Amino acid sequence: MVEWYDWFVYASFATYFASAFFPKGNETAQLLNTAGIFAVGFFMRPVGGWLLGRFADRRGRKAALTLTVTLMSGSALLIAVAPTYGSVGYLGAFVLLVARLLQGLSVGGEYAASATYLTEATPPGRRGFASSFQYVSMTAGQLVGLGLLIVLQHAMTEEALKSYGWRIPFAVGAVAAAVILYLRRSLLETEAFDEQERAPEEAGAGRGTLRELAAHRREAALVVALTMGGTLAYYTYTTYLTKYLSNTAGLEKSTASLVSFCALFAFMWLQPLAGALSDRIGRRPLLIGFGIGGTLGTVPLMTALSRVDGFGGALALSLVGLVIVTGYTSINAVVKAEMFPTHVRALGVALPYAVANALFGGTAEYVALWFKKAGAESGFYWYVAGCAAVSLVVYVCMRETRDAALSRRESAPGDVPAHA
């Protein structure tokens, strides 16, 4: 939760610190600049996925999880103390960029390490349910950030928030991440990784290497393709939603923040329900449901959201979008982990997922604002729908992964997953 709070709080508070790092002018242009730095952080995620995915496959899931939160704590502190444009010019934006790159490095490894840990640490037949808690914790991190934003919006004036109030959430994140670093040191390693450590000759020096991942290039390509539509839709209906409701629909910033908070709260509780459902009926039906909903529903939903004039309508439409996205978010981590063997599982999840996130998820806000600035905002809706359509083709053609064995014990005769 803390790791993802630090990652998402950037987007939540961007409307307040955008003017602190760039020259005064058009608000959309300032948001475009901060969204560009937000997107650059995503392009560091493949590097983090490669380095920290390899680290997790060679040193263990626990060690990787400890390292990622250390990086996140340092980057949050860097943003909290970054100088503004008014005092040092563009040097402040450069500090913001460096911090965002470190966050991208951290999250690039965090996603894979946590997805792999949750999947390997759970008995067959309950992996979908257990792995769904990755998005529960991710969403909880967003909610904490949005909750703090709402509190500060009511406790401080907009001028105070733009002056210094935006630094508060990053300082809180830095301290909280340091606490989590201490807690993660007590984690137990997974059985699948321990099995590998006891029989290192099975993978040898190939553990977590790009050469070994190349032997599973079909699975890696599948991860990119199945992530493409899901990650773009997820960031559209979560991190970009607050800006969209205030900048396009014209809602007050405080109202837009409250809509996002309530929608995400409901979305969080949908994850384990959908994850448990996938343990019964399989992963593909949920993915296909998302693909159909994302392809056919994005354009009318986003068009309707652009015309809302109050809290109730905005919340209802946002929930519809997030229900559709749940078909992807609740199980995407377990599906990817179930595709790869232990010695390359973390890297196999991390690198292709991070590439897809950099290309589609991380650029979602930037592309949306680019279309808006160009006077063709509806083009973004069709872009999201088109990416969902590509992923839908993959979901229809891919194999079911629910019954994959992740360790020798699970492969033993008679050890059959229980889905009832």
TrEMBL record:
What the entry lists under InterPro entries is as follows: H+-coupled_symporters (IPR051084), MFS (IPR011701), MFS_dom (IPR020846), MFS_trans_sf (IPR036259), Sugar_transporter_CS (IPR005829)
- What residue intervals traverse the membrane? 7-25, 31-52, 64-82, 88-112, 133-152, 164-183, 220-237, 257-274, 286-305, 311-335, 347-368, 380-398
Cellular-component GO terms for this entry:
plasma membrane
- Report the principal subcellular site: membrane
Q: Which GO terms describe its molecular function?
A: symporter activity
Q: Where in the cell is it found?
A: Cell membrane
Ranges for domain Major facilitator superfamily (MFS) profile come to 1-402
Record carries keyword Membrane: yes
Please report the record's description of how this protein sits within the membrane: Multi-pass membrane protein
What does the UniProt keyword field contain?
A: Cell membrane, Membrane, Symport, Transmembrane, Transmembrane helix, Transport
> Which PANTHER family does the record match to this protein?
ALPHA-KETOGLUTARATE PERMEASE (PTHR43528), PROLINE_BETAINE TRANSPORTER (PTHR43528:SF5)
Query: What function does the entry list?
Result: May be a proton symporter involved in the uptake of osmolytes such as proline and glycine betaine.
Q: Which family does it belong to?
A: Belongs to the major facilitator superfamily. Metabolite:H+ Symporter (MHS) family (TC 2.A.1.6) family.
Q: What is this protein called?
A: Putative proline/betaine transporter
